[in-house]
Amino acid sequence: MIPLFLVLLLNWRPACARQVNITVDASKITGNLEATTRFFGADEPNEAVYPDGEALIHDLGNLGPHQTYFRAHNLLTTCDPIDQTEPHRLKWGCTNAYTEDDSGKPIYNFTIVDEIFDTYLANGVKPYAQASFMPKALSTSPDPYTFYFDPSSEYNLIYVGWSYPPTSWEKWGELNYQWVKHCVERYGKAEVESWYWEVWNEPNIPYWNGTQEQYFTLYDYAVEGILRALPTATVGGPEVAGGPDGDWLGLFLDHTVNGQNNATGGKGAPLDFISFHAKGAPTYFDATDSSPGHLQMNMSAALHNVEDAFVVIKRYDSLNRLPVVIGEDDPDGCAACVTPEIDYRNGLIFPSYTAASFTRQIDLAVKYGINLTGQLTWAFVFDDYPFFNNFRVLATNQVNKPILNIFGMFGKMQSQRLAATSTGQYPLESVVEGSIRGESDVGVLASISDEGNKMAVMIWNYHDNALPKPDAQISFNISNAFPGWTEATLKHYRIDQSHSNAYSTWLAMGSPQDPTEQQYTQLKAAGELQMLHQPTTVKLDSGEAGLRFDLPIHAISLLVLEGVRGL
C-alpha cells in the first residue's frame, strides 16, 4: 500500500485543472486488440549493423510479448565503389545484391543483406522485406545513381537512377527469386514464411520513375520470383503515399483481382496484404514579424489518408478482409529533414500524438471493417550524430527518446479491447475532420487479457498546439473487474516532463553534447519507461474501484491492474 500522505501528494490538483471522468467496464469486451504498433522502418538499412542501430534493434525486439517487424528501403541498391562514406549517410543505403559482369551476366551477392537480416533476427525482429530499389546494372536510367542528402536538402534531388524501371523484367524477377531462395537456404522455410515481402515504395510519386502500368509489371515479376522460390511467402503492396493520387490504390487492387498478370499471363496477381502510407502535416501557426509563432500538429491529415484508403479497400469484396499495414504512419513526411515544422520529435508531443492518432486509426478500422494489422512508425536511429538532433528517430546515442516509451506502453496492452469512455475525448469524426484544436483531447484505450485477470488502460492528454494547457484532473473508475477478487495490484506508468523522458533530463543538464559518464548513465536511466510511483494495491468493492490523478498536457499514463484474490 502507498502511505496515505503519499496518496494525498500524488492526488493533489491545481485549482485550474480540468475535470475529466473516465470509466471502464471490464465486462464489456468490444473485440480483439491486435498488436498493430510493432512495426518500424527507415530509409537507411545499413544503420542496423552500426552500434547505435543494433542497440535499438535489440530494444525494438524486446518491447513486449508481440513480434516486431522492420521495413527498410534500399535493400537492393548498388554501392558506389569509389565513395567510402557510404552506406553511412542520410536517406541512403546499399547492399550490392545485384551486379553484372562485362557480358551482362547477373552476379548475386547477398552478404550485406544477410548482415542486416542477421542483426534483426538475432534481436528478435523479423524482416518486413522490401523488394527495392533498382540495382544500377538493371536501371534504365542509371546515371546519376547516388545522391548526397543533408537535413535541409531539396527532397527531389534523391530521385535518381535507383528509381527507374529495369532493363529486363525477367532479370528483375530472377533477382527476387534468387534473393528469396537464398533466404530460405540460409534461414529455413518456416522462418522466411513468417516475414512480409512487399514490392517497392510509394510508386505513385517519383520513388518510382515509371508509369503505373510499369509498376504493375514490376509487382507481377517480383511476386512471381518470390513465390517461385517460396510458394507460401506473404506478398503485398503497393505502399502508396497518402494524399490525392486519383484512384492509384484502387487501380492496383483491381489489377490484382482482374488484370492480366504481366509475368505469368494469367488473371490477377497474388496479394496477401495491402499497404499504404499516412502522414500528418505539422506547421507553424500565428507567426508574425516579431514572433515565429508556435508549432501546430495536424492529425487530421493522416487520418484522412487512412480513411480514404479504407474506403477504397472496402470496394473489393475478395480483398477487404486481407491484413492491412499502414507502412509509414507518421506526424510528418521526412525523417531525415530538419525544418521548424518538425520541432516535436524530441519531447512529449510525438508520443502523445501517436497514442491519440493510432487509437483513432484502430477506430476507423472498426468503423469500416478493415483487418488493420500494422501501424509502422518510420523512425529509427542515425549512428554518430549529436544528441537530440531533431531527426525523427527513436533513440539518440543509445539513449531512448520519449517516443520509444509509447511503444513500451502499447506492448503492455492486453489482447481484448474493453468499452471505455472519457468526458474529455473528441469523437472520431471530429478528429478526422478538424484534428484537435479546441480543448485538449483526454482519451482512453482499455484492454483486458484473455484470462480476464489483467487490465491495461492508456490515457493521454493531447493537443495539436505546442502551447501550455491546464492539467487534466482524472477521475478514473472501473466496474465489473476481476469477479470474485477483492484486490488488484496497480502499476502506473507515465511519460511526462519528469518520467520516461531523457530529453527533459538532457535539457536540465545544459544540453551537453559530450556528457560525463555519470550524466550518460543518468540519461540512459531517464530514457526507460518509468512508473509514476511504486506499485500499490487497489481495493475492489464488487468489482468497482476508483482512482484520482492529474495528467499534464502531452503526458500519457498507462494503468496496469492485475487481480489479486486476497486472503
Automatic annotation (TrEMBL):
<protein>
    <submittedName>
        <fullName>Uncharacterized protein</fullName>
    </submittedName>
</protein>
